[in-house]
Amino acid sequence: MDVVCLPTQPPPSIDDALSKVFRQLPHLRSLTLAHMDLKCVADLGALHHPSLSALSLSYCQFTDIADLVDLVNAFPNLAELAIAGLTWKEEARPPTARPIPSLRRLALGRDVDAERLFEWFVAAELHRVVTRLEIRCASERDTDLIGPFLKLAGPALRELDLDWSFTGDKTIGLPPTMSLAECTALDTLKLQLPVHYSTALPWVSALLGTLDPSSSSSPDVSPAAPPFSPSPSPPPSLSSSASPSTGTAAIRTLGFEIRLLGSIDALDWDGLSRVLATSAAFRTLAALRVGVNLWPGVHRDIAEVEQIVRTRLAPLEKKGTAVSFHKI
In 124-267, where do the E strands start and end? Predict the structure, then answer.
């Protein structure tokens, strides 16, 4: 005889589960939702929880992009927002973009509709309040979106973590829409990058050169009009924040995280040294941190790579900058 035991009650829905979590944890500060189907939640905006300060959403599914915006709006005191791998079925309902004055950290990862998200960020004026931006750039299309957003957000940014994951080309230059010239308050900059076989990476020194627009090493970069502008004539909130800022950044901490598949000499070390030595943006540079993830197949060990890096950066160390090296 076969016996089948059935539950006396159906399992709770995601809607009920989230509501219960918020009721039982009134002082909840951080929430991570990953690989969840949120299409079944009738009203994401009803999950109001004013104590929540950090929200991470990764690989979740929504019915409409407006539902995503409603969910974030439910947490009015957010200080940190991280997004990656989000999808939605439709865009039938206009999102209600609301400012989040408390927001300081914004992280945008892979597998997202960046254009729609940037439209929301700008409409909610997040570029005015975010002081730490973590963002991934994997194509020139990404730079067409990120460059103009950096122009808007630059005056408020103090920390920038840029994952530059370009692949395919033998020589990876700096697209004309990318510049850090407006990042005049920037204090900490980290660049994550892969180094592939037979690749040259002049974009690194070129990007650093844009921090000092008056430097001869800075290319003439004029970011295009943001593709996420809601109309040909931007509203006052966009035009006022996009006006050129004055001054030059004073970088105190610079970091490189290198995924090494090819030669460490793919970096333009001479150009990098020249920018770090002559640009006003690095006049107060106190620490340069280099991390390397050595992939299988590279014909050097980590000690050899460290020796090459330290030799290349020796002039910087002689000037008093603390150079550190670590294995990732």
Answer: 132-137, 159-164, 188-195, 253-260
State the average pLDDT over residues 276-303. Answer: 92
Pairwise CA distance, residues 307 & 187, whole Å: 28
What pLDDT is stored for residue 259 in this prediction?
94
The yes-or-no verdict on residue 243 having pLDDT over 90 is no
CB count within 10 Å of CB 223 equals 21
**DSSP reduced 3-state for 183:** coil
Phi, psi of 192 (to 5 degrees): -105, 130
Q: How is residue 41 written in tokens?
A: 């939640």
Token output for 315 = 């002039």
What is the model's pTM?
A: 0.86
Residue 25 has a pLDDT of 86
CB neighbour class for 59 (10 Å; exposed up to 12, middle 13-18, buried from 19): middle
**Is the pLDDT score of 253 beyond 80?**
yes
Tokens, residue 323: 């150079």
How far apart are the two ends of the chain, measured CA to CA in Å?
Answer: 58
Find the helix or strand (DSSP H, E) in which 290 lies.
strand 287-294
Q: How confident is the model at residue 308 (pLDDT cuts 50, 70, 90)?
A: very high
Residues ≥6 apart with Cβ < 8 Å to 148:
177, 223, 224, 225, 226, 227, 228
